[in-house]
Amino acid sequence: MASSSSPAPSSQYPGPHDIFVSFRGEDTRGNFTSHLHAALRRNEIDTYIDEGIEKGDEVWLCLEKAIEDSTMLLVVLLVVFSENYASSTWCLKELAKILDLCRNQDHLVIPVFYKVEPSDVRKQSGS
């Protein structure tokens, strides 16, 4: 975690960061995720969210590097499941990468359910 008394660095890469947050931007960027990100930064936890990434071919390379670097540093990754999370190819690629990297390591993937029931995700029902 960030150890200095100054505010945590920007979530724009370069990293590595203490925590990687996977989320569906259209569902949670302007509300839940931005509040979560701000609260973690206030507590000097350097959190990566995908703000500032230009759309295009380099998006996945940047996200993949941020996930890989986060799994080397810390044991916590947050996945914010929202109503349309599963409809995003990017979100599903992030989730697959997170689970792949964490499968054989002692990392903790914390699911956060934003306006969805855990059973909807578990049973893959609803949107």
How would you describe this protein?
With 127 residues, this protein is α/β, with parallel strands linked by helices. The chain has one domain (19-122): Toll/interleukin-1 receptor homology (TIR) domain (Rossmann fold, 3-Layer(aba) Sandwich). 39% of the residues lie in helices and 14% in strands. It contains 5 helices and 4 strands; from the N terminus they run E-H-H-E-H-E-H-E-H. The protein has helices at residues 25-28, 32-42, 58-73, 89-102, 118-122; strands spanning 19-22, 47-48, 76-81, 108-113. It has a 4-stranded parallel β-sheet with strand order 2-1-3-4, with helices on both faces. Helix 3 packs parallel to helix 4 (89-102). The longest helix has 16 residues, at 58-73. The chain is globular.
Task: Please supply descriptive tags for the structure shown above.
single chain, 127 residues, alpha/beta, Rossmann fold, 4-stranded parallel β-sheet, 39% helix, globular
